[in-house]
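User: quick one, fold this
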Amino acid sequence: PLLEAQPAIAGVSPMVSGSGLALRGEATQAIALLGVDLDRYDRMVGLRAKVVSGVARLAPGEAIVGRELASDLGIRIGDRLTVQTGAVGDSVRVTALVDLGVKDLNRRTVIVPLRAAQNLLGLPGGATSLDLTLRDVWGAQALADSLRGQYPYKIESWQESNAQLVSALNAQSVSTALIRGVVL
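Assistant:
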């Protein structure tokens, strides 16, 4: 609520993430477990548009998995699998398969309700990260600097998280200007 009240921020999506195992019969696969509030997360990343099978739904006891992981474990919509983190395990029913655009992500991702991940990862009521959507994407660095002064957490703008990309884009614009200059 404190962040959402700021005029520059269009949305906030809490997430709990950690590693674990997906078990189905004799098959076991290392996974990246994500706990999200589906509606908030969908507004951030457009998850529902990435569904290749089923319907994206995350009621208690449900999960969305990457399509490669489903293929590796022989899972279809409606099947159950066990998600295990340390000594804690939970059986979930698969509601949708997603294509996240990167094969490795599709092979490792299991998305569950926020509360389920909090329980599995021992973070009741907590979050490992908060993703923010801004009304002006170019204001990210200024907002990150401002938030660092207010909160004792690690805060990164998208420019800092993607420093190599920003550097490459800057180099590309410089080389484009140079080429235009030579052509002129």
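User: anything notable?
Assistant: Helices lie at 38-45, 67-73, 103-108, 114-120, 140-150, 158-161, 163-183.
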